[in-house]
Amino acid sequence: RSSDLRLERLLQDAKDEHIRFQESNEQLLQEAEGWCERFNELTEQTKMFELSMTNMEESLNGKENQIKSLTECLLTLKDWSTELNKENIPDDSSWEIGRA
After folding, report:
1. How far is CA 26 from CA 33, 35, 83, in A?
2. CA pair distance 68, 62, nearest whole angstrom
3. Which pTM does this prediction carry?
4. DSSP assignment of 9-75, as one string?
5. Dist CA 45 CA 48 (whole Å)
6. pLDDT tens figures, 41-87
């Protein structure tokens, strides 16, 4: 009779432990689903950031090309200005007033 009671207690303990394992398993599955959703969100954010970074790099390259082009234009204008100034500088004789 005591062995039957002991077996019943062991059986009940095993059932209780089984229920705890099932509950723990459910909780872990829910946590795993949450982590999976978070991972997917972060993956999407990473894709968006990578696309944004690519767009910014392309824009930066375009701006660098524009700056280079404008710099070349300004240097060309400076060269022209220098040449024009050389052509318009009067020779020394024209600065002499009253001598002729």
Report:
1. 11, 14, 85
2. 10
3. 0.55
4. HHHHHHHHHHHHHHHHHHHHHHHHHHHHHHHHHHHHHHHHHHHHHHHHHHHHHHHHHHHHHHHHHHH
5. 5
6. 999 999 999 999 999 999 999 999 999 999 999 999 988 888 777 77
